[in-house]
## 1
Amino acid sequence: MERELFPEEEIIKGCKEGKRYYQEILYRRFAPVMYGVCLSYAKDREQARDILHDAFLKIFRNIDTYKKQGSFEGWIRRIVTNTAIDHTRKKSKTFQFITNEIPDTEDTEEEKPDIGLNELLEQVARLPEGARMVFNLYTLEGMSHYEIAEKLNISVGTSKSQFSRAKRMLQTWVSELIKKKDGLS
Amino acid sequence: MDFLKWYKNTIESGQEAPPEDIWDDIQNDLDIDMVYNRLEKSLKKDRRKMWLWRASAAAGILLFLSTGIWLLNQSKQVVTPAVVQNNKPEKEEDSLQKAGITTTTDSVQHLRTGELRETETDIETVKAEKLTFPDNDIAPLKIVKVTSTSATKDTSDNKNNDIAAREFDVRFNTMASTQFVLPKQGYTGIQEKLITELSLPEPEKHPLENRLPSSGIFSGLTFSADGEFANTWLINQKTIEGLDPQDLTATKPTFNSNYGFSIAGNLNERWEIVSSFSVARQNGQQYKEYYHGKYVSNSINLDYMDIALKARYKPFRNNLNHALSAGIYSGFLQNATQTINGETTNITSDYTNTDFGLVAGYQYLAPVSRNITVGAGLFYRMGLKNVFAGNQMVNSSLNHSTNTSFNFSLSVGYTFSL
């Protein structure tokens, strides 16, 4: 049977029994998506690699605690996100934030900016880690500023301001990148 | 286009395959988890088994010591004159007749304790009385010698006393093979006088023979020099698994020698308290260790100074050469080394400073002269403490190790009577 065809319940059951075959199936199925998530939170690929490694170990060690409340992928993603936050906290006890005011920018007019994942991740990595966390938690995880403030132990105001500044900075950098690419072509 | 939606889509649809070595690393860590869990489960099981063994051994030794103390107390009970009864003279005669002695009923003088006060004689009367023991129908005979101080009122009593004295000689000789029990207090003087008057030879006593303590607890002290040839085991998960011939750790029997001395206090004929001091007691284990990518020979040696306190019991009344011992020991670590491929390193900090456990065994004690005894025996020592203190690599609980040994002992002792 192809790995992709295994029902989720069977994979979870196999993982709960500690069967390496099912653990590998689970890893192969979710690791590519989660690696992208890790890359968006991490400063570089090395850190993303460590986050993914630690996150999947936590998943396998704690799979018994998964109670089928909510999607399995959502459960995995929460572990990956929390691991990413823990990693960033370990590296620097206090998050770095954007301190200067960023001028307001408009959304790009292009339907699909011609920028690949790696190029986008390079721009995200330029953000200070605190601002990057806030931006990703809001955008990728859909968390509210209250939840983000609680999770990162910052004020709601900081979360809001860091989000808007991070968004503006990213937009600026993406626009600059598009212009640069257009100029080259 | 909404920037945030575009950002989310780009990140989540990227599906960049992570480096393959991440999965390899995860697998390695899962393997370690699996080994750790198995080890934990196994250790828990072993600990349960070990405690069962230890509890059984401790209970056995406690029972052994309790029985010994109870027997000791029994043997020390003093029979007072108040319990002396002589109200069944006909039975006594029967016993004499059974022994082949023909006596007339009136030739034997039976005096009750109360009558002794009333009948005052000027001659010494010796009589055999039967003691009544509440728990024993077969009571030993006791010789009682009664000496009066006043003049006789009735001359017929003198005649009777003469007859009684002659009868006593006959009866005493008959009963010579019977065991006599003379309480220490109250009869010691009578015993000595009786022996003197009857010209009985003073029995030669071995220093270890039972004697009532004249002063203190011990009737004698035996000083011994001890040597042991020991088959030692350092019991832990690795060495237990190594006993399986297929296992790569390949645990090998290890032999060491120990030296020391001991002092035994003789409580009575059959019980002794033995205190042993080992100047150099070695415990160790040889097995194969996974080291730098291959299995190599590893020898661990633990050097202790050691003290032990044992109760020694001679189970056979008729043959006091056999002795069973049981007790406790405590060891004090002097040095610990590990030799891998001929290279020795000091690992004293990896092991605890002390050890304690149980010791039990058998000894054959052969007297070569009145005071000198040579002994040979076999002892089992079971450590109760985890002697592995842990190090930077391995936690102490993950390598739970106990000392165990089978010891062939030789000893030469000299006994002083007190």
## 2
Amino acid sequence: MTNNSKEKQFTNHLTENVKMIVDILQQSVDFVKREMVFHEQKQIKTALFYIDGLASIQHVEKVIEAIMYEGNELIIRNDIEEDSLLKLLDKHVLMNSSFAAITELDKGINAILSGDSILIVDGCSKAFHIQTKGWDTRSVDEPQTEQVVRGPRDGFTENIRTNTALVRRRIRDPELRIEAMNIGARTKTDINIAYIKDTVKKGLVEEVKKRLERIDIDGILESGYIEELITDVPFSPFTTIMNTERPDKVASALLEGRVAIFVDNTPFVLVVPTYFWQFLQASDDYYMGYMAGSFFRMVRYAAFIISLTLTSIYVMLVSFHQEMIPTPLALTIASGREIVPFPVLLEALLMELTFELMREAGLRMPKPVGQAVSIVGSLVIGQAAVQAGIVSPFMVIIVAVTGISSFVIPNYSASYSIRLIRFPLLIASGLLGLLGFSVMFALLAIHALSIRSFGESYMAPATPFQPTDQKDSLVRFPWWAMKKRPDLADGDQQKLGENQKPSPPDPLAKKQMKSKNENSDISSRKKEEENGKGSSAAANSQAKGKQQAEAINKKETAQTSSSFSNKDEGKLDTLFPVNQPEEQISVIEEGVEKDNAAMEKQQLFLQKTRNITSASGVKRWKKKRKKGKNGEG
Amino acid sequence: MEEKTKKRKKWGGVAMRKKAVLLSCILILLLPLAGCVGKKEISDLAIVMAVGIDEGKEAGSVKVSVQVARPADARGQTGAPAGQSGEAIWNVEAEGESIFEAIRKLSSISTRRIFWAHNFIIVINEQVAKEGIGGIIDFFSRNQELRMRTKVVITPDSASEIVSTATGLEIIPGEAMDKLFRYSAISSVSAQSDMMELLAAYLSPSSEPLLARVILQKMKVDSEKAEAGASLKQIELAGAGVFKDDKLVGILKPEEMRGVIAFRDKLDSGALIATCPSNPNKNTTVELDAPSFRVEPTYHNQEIRFKATLDVDVSVVEAGCSFAINNKEQVKTLQNSVEDTLRKQIMTTVNKVQKDYQADVFELGKVFQNKYPYEWKKYKNNWSEIFSTTNIDVVVHSEVVSGELLFKPTESGKKEKSKE
Amino acid sequence: MKVQITNGMFMALIINMLYAKSIGLTQGVIAREVGGDMWLSTIFASMQGLVVMALVVIVIKRMPEGDLIDQFHQIFGKWIGKGAAFLVFIFFIGAYGSIMATFVYHLKDYFLPEAPLVLFIAGAFLIGAYALFFGIEVVARMALIGIFSIIGLNILLMIGSLGKFDIRELLPTFQSGVVKTVWASRHHNTDWAMATMMAAIILPIVKEKKTWIKSGTAGICYSAIIIIMWPILETGVLSPEVAAQYIISCMQMARSAEIGLFIHRYEMIMIALFALSILTQIMMTFLCSSIAMQKMLGLKDYRPAIIPSGLILSGFSYWMVKNHHRAMHIIEGIWVPVSLGIAVGLPALLLISGFFFKKKLKMKKNNANVQG
């Protein structure tokens, strides 16, 4: 059906072109055809096609204005040929920001359906594809699924160009590349692939493109479709592709050497490849101090383990291995379970189901009612169920704690996969006790260990154990300690300059301020790399010269401080030297020297007065005074 | 075989994959076939808190009595109203030819499965102990439910009465009995004996078991009949029983326990009554702190001797007369008195155990073995006779270090004034 | 198999292969022979293990592209190679039997006495088959997890039982005489025999040839250190006679450990950790036996051999484990000469014959160099 129009091209005649376009797009009420006359005298007819709603009326009106008004200019020039018509329109008439001349009908149709306009001029075999996109979109707002306490609050929207712009604003490296493709036979959804060229792993971008091009589906409505179609493990409950609504997450992923996939009409951007432990990291960890970040990260790991195993362990202990429970607790559990008619496994499944019901109901209900359900549901239903004797109070606590822990996991889809994995574990431990638990746990562990996400092991950096990546796994090391990019990234491995650990200025040893000349600065090092190795020799000599200068300066300060103690009255010059090159005395040093000066003065005074304050000293002083008086008198 | 290998060489073929999937499905489905085997809900368990073993009515039979906790009464209402009758424990007993049979009979009385894993204490009647507890030791160590740190005690009273008595501050009497031992070191009236130690001593080629002993004593005052005084029976720690192999051969009274505890466990702080240095009619009570006890074997001319040294720090906690800590003579007298008393106490125990019972509960065999391993081989086989003839010297050193808070003696001020 | 595993993973595999059976079952057996000197026997055994591991590494280094069976094939020809493969297969059948005995007695006797034996065997088979389907890398990664759980297990046990430790039980040493102590070390020898045979089969996959010998011997050293804690604690806390009484003395010790007053029995936590390690051991044995069967039958890949070898292994272990007496009889009696004969004999044979047949080995090396 579309084959014909692919080969079809625009012809010289307006009516034919118009007929071709109208045939294909036929009679939608929002499909607008606007006919105009260009160049009154020669009566060159033009037609403009656009879709109302997709095209911005302002831009369209600009085009119409240009055609109708600016045509006056051409009245001056009477001579118009086909080629120059194009050039004329190009150079003098059309005032839009971007447009192109196209020959194929198919492209024209796509352009109209994307929101651009097609201008057909009689006598010209090319049509003009004018950029007039403009429709209503949601404004940039805080993402609803990933909220942070500290950090940027802008989130992606449904417009793909806005999304890429949000990431571009954060990474101003010229190496950031964004490539485009269309997926979906009917939807022709725009897909953008973003990566930083000298950091991304070799072969990763090609692999991503290969998988995306393989997709043959009629429509892509959301990035979730793409996720399922390019995943490494189609049968696994684990997700191997991360999706996020936050531009800062995408930016940091790109800096680590990953690839981001933007999909039009959805704010969820995909990032590949993924490690499992990434799902337990939140943006907050990186923006808060490293101690707080590490602590909360460990809380999240604990929450992960709890949400996975707590219910199973409880069921296993109470059904099979009661000897493991401390005796007072065993009696309490037993007393709670006295009147419950179900076995523990069934009770657990029932409570889990109820919890899922409440959660789902809270999600689907309209907002005003949703609040009531969540509070009422959790408190009242739990308590009421216990009073009614359907569940034991312990089970309510266990299920509630498990549920809360599963919400601690920042990534929503990851928390889902963990909830799903919980059920086989629960059933296995309820059927077979410890054997079931360990067998099922081992099976899950083996499954998780065998997954690869676009070539990267899913459970790295825990196994296979990569010592270099441990600085961001269990705890987050401070920024001044994370020197290298993760193992995943190729290319530029050095992330951090030298000696980044902050420290207060040291008043005793003279340290030069390192900002300008030092080679450890990243950008200058990069330039060095670009300039080649020749400059390294120069750099070395530069460094040597610097050391010499430092040594000289040290001597000078020693001299100044010692000279200061000898003479009491100011060598003000030494306190505030003006002409000394490359000697920058810091504020602390000034203070120290002032203290020294004050101390010296005090000592001198004491020396003087010591002679007075002792008993013999007083006598001597009296004598002196007498002498003086007598001398005077 | 060759044909099969030819087929199998094509790994990755669809047919092969399907077979593998089918086989794994079958295996996975095999697992639920077990149908929750071995599952016992916690509300189907009769959790035993204490067990007592007596002699049965017929000769050669045993009577087993168990104390089962009732969770609803023990814990109060934690959920919907459960069957509360006010009693925290449920006691039953059954008789049988062996312990295992008696326990099986219990299941015909109990509505729930008898569950031993939370058992606190095993009480054995002395009559049963005299005939040998080897069977008991075997039963409880073979069973995988029992904790090896369960306490084992003997009693002259009926074990089933002990097990059924509501005693102590705890809700569950079994727990109360277990906790009795936690602080027993303060009073030094009884040893700590659990199943693990009993088993180790029984299997050991030289040491003999020693089990703690409890009795029923009227000590509790009924709050409703306060005028009657102490009328309700409570369980009290009362010394220990000395065993030879697995038979009970003798009792050690509470006063004699200090000597035994010194050898076996660590002595904790204890109290001692000595005569007052200044007034022989009155008593001074002292506390023995930081005791350190060493036993050293010596071997000369085929003669085995043991030297036991005890060093204690003495603090005066109750002086019935005037006692000043800086009065050197008084201190010396007190020290000598303390040393004498201690020595006498320990020697009484030692003599009793050595001569009367001839059972090495002091673990001296191990001490000797550690130092003279080659000579030990000669004496290994008849250690109990040799033990009764060895010489055990006890030396006590003490030092008065503190008078608690006071420095001067507590005396009436009026006397002093009259002196002046 | 083009996959490669790192040296760290290799060491982890060795430690996992050694750990599970040596801490409990073997100690009980040795305690029955020498009483309080079990730890000395263990040390002697580890020293012998070091020697044999070095021997294996030297032998495999001669022809690094192929494992033990390939070397036999290369030197002696096809049929003796197949015979060697058959012997290796028999070895791993026996090994699997003793491992399953450990697994079943730990879990079944103490936790699930009423569960049918088939379930344990089937569960182990399922896990082994599933893991092997993915390849050795997954097993090696599980070994790393196993290491963490082993360390956790050791620490937990020390916390719970050091309070009751009595050094007098350990002294004096060499009570039973030096000869008897050394002779008793043969039981622990069967444990590291499993590790050395495994090394003989998978060394070609380990990266970095130069450090093979260091990682192999380091693996045995680390495992010796980790294992030695158990006989010392078992003797000190339980007493040698009690340790001798039980089939699985490590469980007995775990059951007696207490943390504080409120956690009376936390052996389940310890068993959960222990289960990960022993499952790694099961997977590895499964793998080695599948490889042996593959070489025996001349297949290209070991995956088709997983199911038949698994069935044989499971059948044998079911028969052996069902009767406690039979299991202990095999482990204490027949298994010792069989395993040591194969584990020490095969590499020794290769070592000696390697001197005579150096040419053949060099030929293979040259061929490999030309191809690769």
